[in-house]
């Protein structure tokens, strides 16, 4: 599809201005949006079709969503991606998305884009918020002053479902922006159709409609731009230049904008921040929120977990057994399905409710604007270790999944900070590790579910911070980069997108259970039932898995889990962390499980799985982002070593506590 | 009176005079609108004492005190509100 595209439109604008929201609308995609700067870190391509004017022919228009940039001088990796795309790839049209509630700063990039000379339209987004305040903007005049067509829009509006819910919530829609997206598409198509003709014989013949003066043919010599804009920030000093642009912007804004009476978003944000980033309450609230999430995932998630568990282990297993016996299916097949697949896959699916609740919270954090506040709250701790508070955003994303989290480190301005963050991100306990804790905690610490979880998550954070400190002192030495971060106004999450995100992420886990965990379960079942000559064994200790496991297990003896089954589950955990659960479900009977693990051993085991090397997918991402085998293997080895040490300490202290009879 | 931004108390406004520091920092601040003549309000300081939250050109920005110390300001701007950068 992409290659057949006739035209390409690039979406450019400041971070958090709504580019991805618009992209999703234009291309009917489902890319991630969130109310914090730096959500999009890669270019994403989608497309829509239009009709060639005067014919019935369909033409494909590619739309490219780019990471947000404040200027064409890039500082961090994702900004370089955006800058390079706009400058080097010569899109046929740039749609500059501007947050209308934040005009001055957004227009700075507009001035720079204009200088590049590519055809451009401004989509003035967030008009709903502007209108809510009673602010009036003279679009025609602004368009004239800027020399660029302007179309007011509200990228979140018009989706039938969420629009209705939004109305119920007392949310005001924008009159001016109604139908804005359609107008935007119309305008874009118009320019695409005409600009094509400009290269023909008579460029002046067709003025772009609605524009005061025809786009001069010269502006289509896209390669002609000011090369001084492209040098790296180090070598430039354009003090004068920026100040000049801003004074010009101020002139335009004061001539075209009449501020309204109200400041709805600012007032709301001020009120919320009065509590959430309050001097005394800010940090305690963050900790309490985390604790409540874990507790909720236990109580609410637990209800569903039990139901799913009963469904798999009793209803489904019982049904299959009856059915297979009636059909005369061979024993090995019955065993594979019941003790391999249902135990392995079911064991993981059981914990989907917990993962769901985790994502309900994480996504809420991203969509409301709390994310940047957490970085704000905790930045001081990061200053101490030489990192930027911005590192906390990848770390929090790491609670969901290490893969996007490692990639999010791209938003860090400084290369050493980025590498350090990639190293430590896997210490953040990802969603796939949740089933492991849920399983152990459910059996051994059920009275202290929330606390044990909080302990594990906080331990992960502490180890990450300690490691960052160590890394910045040794292999990733360098000055700490400046911390300059926008704090967006709090927004009510768009319910449709919100629900969709949670659904997508939860679905991801279910799909993994049906694919990778399914295969792993079959493999484990086979390896634990057959020996090296591929004949079935009675005692699984004599199986392939048993023999290899027994050889390896002594390594883990000092940590308390020198049992071969526990050792093997750690190996399968490299495929995907949930596979630890599958392996344990397949290999242990419930009685064995409770006999071989004591609470202390269980805790040491959880600590080990929290910290040891990341799963295959995360490792591959780390390798790609660090672009070095050496460093990524070092990272995995480091993580495993730390896991070993930490589990050892936990085990020994645990034993002492138990022996001393305190507990 | 000239001073640096990190010395301004929360709740007070001031006017940017000049930006020092290295070029990366300087350019970043400039392109985000921290230009000479702009009015900046210090909204608050984070619970652990750093960073600070600023309001500038109608949006909120967070920077560390270290960065703020290279922004020279005059703190008499409380009532000389610059049309474009402060909304009433
Ligand atoms: N009220 C309102 N909110 C909007 C509108 N458009 C987008 N948003 C919200 O603004 C936030 C940012 O949207 P995104 O689409 O992720 O912004 P982006 O420009 O892609 O951001 P980056 O990828 O971080 O550069 C989200 O919370 C959106 O829901 C709008 O028209 N009105
Ligand atoms: Mg985006």
Automatic annotation (TrEMBL), chain A:
Xref: CDD domains: FeoB
Pfam entry (one): Gate
Keyword annotations of the record: Cell inner membrane, Cell membrane, GTP-binding, Ion transport, Iron, Iron transport, Magnesium, Membrane, Metal-binding, Nucleotide-binding, Transmembrane, Transmembrane helix, Transport
Residues binding Mg(2+): 24, 27
Keyword Nucleotide-binding (UniProt): yes
Superkingdom classification of source: Archaea
Classification via NCBIfam families: feoB, small_GTP
Record's protein name: Ferrous iron transport protein B
Source organism per UniProt: Methanimicrococcus blatticola
Lineage summary: Archaea, Methanobacteriati, Methanobacteriota, Stenosarchaea group, Methanomicrobia
From TrEMBL, chain B:
Domain Ferrous iron transporter FeoA-like: 3-75
Keywords: Iron
Entry-linked InterPro entries: Fe-transptr_FeoA-like, FeoA, FeoA_core_dom, Transcriptional_repressor_C
Residues of the signal peptide: none
Example of a GO MF term: transition metal ion binding
Superkingdom per UniProt: Archaea
Protein known as: Ferrous iron transport protein A
Source organism: Methanimicrococcus blatticola
């Amino acid at each position: 599809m992409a290659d057949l595209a006739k035209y390409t439109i690039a979406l450019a604008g400041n971070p958090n201005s709504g580019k991805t929201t618009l992209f999703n609308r234009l291309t009917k995609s489902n890319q991630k949006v969130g109310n914090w700067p730096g959500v999009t870190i890669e270019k994403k391509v989608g497309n829509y079709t239009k009709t060639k004017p005067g014919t019935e022919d369909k033409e494909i228009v590619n739309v490219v969503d780019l990471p947000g940039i404040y200027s064409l001088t890039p500082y961090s990796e994702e900004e370089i991606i955006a800058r390079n795309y706009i400058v080097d790839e010569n899109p046929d049209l740039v749609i500059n998305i501007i947050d209308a509630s934040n005009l001055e700063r957004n227009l700075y990039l507009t001035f720079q884009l204009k200088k590049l000379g590519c055809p451009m339209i401004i989509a003035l987004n967030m008009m709903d918020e502007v209108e809510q305040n009673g602010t009036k903007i003279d679009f025609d005049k602004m368009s004239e002053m800027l020399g660029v067509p302007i179309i007011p829009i509200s990228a979140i509006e018009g989706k039938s479902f969420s629009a209705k819910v939004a109305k119920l919530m007392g949310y005001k829609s924008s009159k001016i922006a109604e139908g804005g997206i359609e107008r935007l598409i119309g305008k874009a198509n118009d320019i695409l159709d005409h600009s094509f003709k400009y290269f023909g014989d008579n460029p002046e013949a067709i003025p772009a409609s609605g524009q005061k003066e025809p786009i001069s043919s010269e502006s289509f010599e896209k390669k002609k731009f000011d090369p001084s804009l492209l040098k790296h920030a180090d070598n430039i000093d354009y003090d004068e230049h920026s100040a000049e642009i801003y004074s010009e912007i101020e002139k335009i804004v004061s001539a075209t904008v009449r501020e309204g009476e109200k400041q709805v978003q600012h007032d709301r944000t001020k009120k919320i921040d009065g509590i959430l980033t309050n001097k005394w309450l800010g940090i305690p609230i963050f900790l309490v929120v985390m604790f409540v999430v874990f507790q909720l995932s236990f109580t609410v998630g637990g209800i569903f977990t039990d139901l799913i568990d009963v469904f798999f282990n009793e209803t489904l297993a019982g049904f299959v057994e009856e059915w297979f016996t009636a059909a005369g299916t061979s024993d090995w097949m019955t065993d594979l399905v019941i003790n391999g697949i249902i135990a392995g896959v079911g064991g993981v699916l059981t914990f989907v409710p917990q993962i769901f609740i985790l994502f309900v919270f994480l996504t809420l954090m991203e969509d409301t604007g709390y994310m940047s506040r957490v970085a704000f709250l905790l930045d001081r701790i990061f200053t101490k270790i030489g990192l930027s508070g911005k590192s906390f955003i990848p770390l929090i994303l790491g609670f969901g999944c290490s893969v996007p989290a490692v990639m999010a480190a791209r938003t860090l301005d400084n290369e050493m900070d980025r590498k350090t963050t990639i190293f430590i991100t896997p210490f953040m306990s990802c969603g796939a590790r949740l089933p492991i804790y849920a399983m152990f905690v459910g059996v051994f610490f059920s009275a202290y579910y929330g606390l044990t979880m909080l302990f594990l998550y906080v331990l992960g954070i502490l180890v990450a911070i300690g490691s960052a400190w160590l890394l910045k002192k040794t292999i990733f030495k360098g000055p700490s980069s400046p911390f300059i971060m926008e704090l967006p106004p709090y927004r009510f999450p768009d319910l449709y997108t919100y629900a969709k995100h949670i659904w997508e992420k939860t679905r991801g886990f279910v799909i993994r259970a049906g694919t990778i965990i399914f295969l792993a379960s079959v493999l484990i079942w086979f390896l634990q039932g057959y020996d090296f000559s591929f004949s079935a064994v009675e005692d699984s200790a004599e199986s392939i898995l048993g023999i290899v496991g027994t050889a390896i297990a002594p390594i883990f003896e000092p940590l308390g889990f020198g049992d071969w089954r526990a050792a093997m589950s750690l190996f399968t955990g490299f495929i995907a962390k949930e596979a630890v659960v599958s392996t344990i479900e397949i290999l242990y009977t419930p009685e064995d499980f409770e006999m071989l693990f004591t609470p202390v051993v269980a805790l040491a085991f959880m600590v080990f799985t929290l910290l040891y090397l990341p799963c295959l997918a995360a490792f591959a991402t780390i390798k790609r982002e660090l672009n070095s085998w050496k460093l990524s293997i070092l990272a995995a080895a480091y993580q495993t070593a730390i896991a070993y040490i930490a589990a050892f300490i936990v085990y020994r202290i645990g034993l002492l506590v138990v022996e001393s009879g305190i507990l | 009176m000239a001073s640096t931004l990190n010395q301004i108390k929360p709740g007070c406004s001031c006017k940017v005079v000049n930006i020092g520091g290295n070029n990366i920092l300087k350019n970043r601040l400039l392109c985000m609108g921290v230009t000479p003549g702009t009015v900046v309000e210090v909204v608050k300081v984070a619970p652990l004492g750093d960073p600070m939250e600023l309001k500038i050109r109608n949006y909120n920005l967070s920077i560390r005190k270290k960065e703020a110390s290279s922004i020279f300001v005059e703190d008499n701007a409380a009532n000389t509100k610059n049309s474009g950068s402060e909304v009433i």
